[in-house]
Amino acid sequence: MSYAISRRGVRTATAVGAVSLGLLALSACEKPSPMATATVNSTSVSTEAACYNDGDTIAQSEAKSCLSKEAEKSVTAGPGDKVRIGVEPDVAEGGWLLFIDGQPVLPEPIKKTYYTFPGEAFFQSQTPTGQAQKKDSAQVSIVQADGSQFKGIWHLKLKNGS
Fold first, then answer.
1. Ranges 3-12, 62-71, 88-97: which has the least confidence
2. How far apart are CA 77 and CA 3, in angstroms?
3. Whole-number Cα distances in Å, 85 to 14, 44, 94, 121, 129
């Protein structure tokens, strides 16, 4: 008894196999972390999270370590420039904080997808004697927060273009 395999049967089996392999490949991929973006004039730079736990709380020890990581991407801002910091809607929904060189900027979380800051705000600091001092760059950290719990941390570097 001989069995003849029809072309239609081969095509169906091939299609089912291709779909199965595609689903297997997709299930092996990790969901990418949300992005954070800094825009100055027409120049934008985006970065993935330095620490992100798929929207869940990051352990306090990991968050502390992550806050000290250096930014890998940078953008230059000059005097009078506006710096727009943006996050994805999922991050904005719960609120996010902005840190400059490890210090929080605003007392309350931001619940918008972007916020505009004057460029010069990133490059001023005070010496221990209270005198204003200009900086060449600033480490900007965007922190997705739920109360005192951190859920994601992104870093960007702003360079002083003055």
1. 3-12
2. 73
3. 48, 10, 16, 13, 31
b/e per residue, 135-157, with b = 16+ CB within 10 A? Answer: eebbbbbbbbbeeeebbbbbbbb
Per the CB < 8 A criterion, the answer to whether 32 and 135 are in contact is no
DSSP codes joined into one string, 20-57: HHHHHHHHHSPPPPPEEEEEETTEEEEEE-SEE-TTSP
| pTM of the predicted protein model | 0.76
CA–CA separation, 86 vs 115, rounded Å?
Answer: 7
For 105, half-sphere exposure in the C-beta direction (CA atoms, 13 angstrom radius) is 23
DSSP H or E stretch at residue 151: strand 149-160
